Amino acid sequence: MPYYEFAMRRPGGKQTMSIGSTAKLRYAGHIGYRVKPRYRGHRYAARSCRLSLPLTIAHSLRQVWLTVDSKNIPS
């Protein structure tokens, strides 16, 4: 499945975004992110997700699936 990978330079992390709408993505989601521990809690992942929305529109995605582990309170 095609995807993009973006660097979060300031916090030192990354975001990935898959393009498509397969059943597999219902579990994994379109967007994934990782922020280094010392930068967590500053909403960098939330900002990264917002910044990627124009790209989802450009790919005609009508929905964006983001899944998180219920034990991961910050996400």
Structure description:
The protein has a three-stranded antiparallel sheet with strand order 1-2-3, covered by helices on one side. The protein is of the alpha+beta class. The protein has one domain. A hairpin with a 4-residue loop joins strand 1 and strand 2. It has helices at 23-28, 44-58; strands at residues 3-8, 13-18, 31-35. It has two helices and three strands.
Secondary structure elements and pairings:
Layout: E1 3-8, E2 13-18, H1 23-28, E3 31-35, H2 44-58
Antiparallel strand pairs: 1-2, 2-3
Spatial strand order of the main sheet? 1-2-3
Q: Give helix and strand order, one letter per element, not per position.
A: EEHEH
Average pLDDT rating? 85
How many domain regions?
Answer: 1
| Unreliable sequence segments | none
- Taken as a percent bin, the fraction of beta residues is 15-25%
Give the proportion of residues in helices.
25-40%
Instruction: Give the distance, in angstroms, between the N- and C-terminal Cα atoms.
Output: 24 Å
Given the C-alpha coordinates, what overall shape results?
globular
Rounded Rg: 12 Å
Number of strands: 3
How many strands, which pairing sense, and closed or not: the largest β-sheet? 3 strands, antiparallel
Structural class: alpha+beta
Number of helices: 2
